[in-house]
Amino acid sequence: MFKIFRNLLVGLIAMTVATTTASAADPENTLVIELETGKVVIEMLPDLAPTHVARIKELAREGFYDGIVFHRVIEGFMAQTGDPTGTGTSGSGKKLRAEFSQEPFVRGIVGMARSQNPHSGDSQFFIMFDSAPSLNTQYTVWGRVIEGMEHVDGIKRGAPGSGSVTDPDHMVSVKVLADIQ
Q1: 62 phi, psi to nearest 5 deg
Q2: How confident is the model over 69-119, as pLDDT tens digits?
């Protein structure tokens, strides 16, 4: 019985890895976010935002994002993360110049958070629950969810208005797919 269970488990793990690998055309530009509920796979878009993609990969490879919470989550809008303090007021300490594009902010798009200054993106980013045309050409798009959007949909929502989350969900780990194959 144990042998059957073990073989079944090995097969399921192999299928999961194969599915993630199959959906990712370029493992070097694919980010895997492990949430408590499952994996979110993001296709990074270096053609649109080369500096942002390079910085996200650098931070992921340093383990910077591991354990960081979704501190601002607004129903019907987006889930924001990437602040090591969990307050929404901090980052990695390296500001990036904006890389605006014509890519629209629709469900599953990943954008870089910033302050009023367009060139203040750092480590914080957000994943869209729905379309937000008001963000188009105003924030840097650097990725899109290609798998696991149901896990993004399950992230705990914040207070109406502010989106501030009490006892927030967190990213267990964030890795570049090329590093885990």
Answers
A1: -80, -10
A2: 999 999 999 999 999 999 999 999 999 999 999 999 999 999 999 999 999
Residue with tokens 């990437």: 82
Which among 139, 58, 128 is positioned nearest to 98, based on CA atoms? 139
- State the Cα–Cα distance between residues 14 and 121, nearest whole angstrom: 37
pTM: 0.87
Q: How far is CA 4 from CA 7, 12, 42, 123, in A?
A: 5, 12, 34, 45
In the chain, the amino acid numbered 17 is: V
Asked if 30 contacts 24 with a C-beta cutoff of 8 angstroms, the reply is: yes
Burial class from Cβ neighbours inside 10 Å (0-12, 13-18, 19+) for residue 6 reads exposed
What one-character-per-residue DSSP string does 48-95 give?
A: T-HHHHHHHHHHHHHTTTTT-B--EEETTTEEEE--TTSSSS--SS--
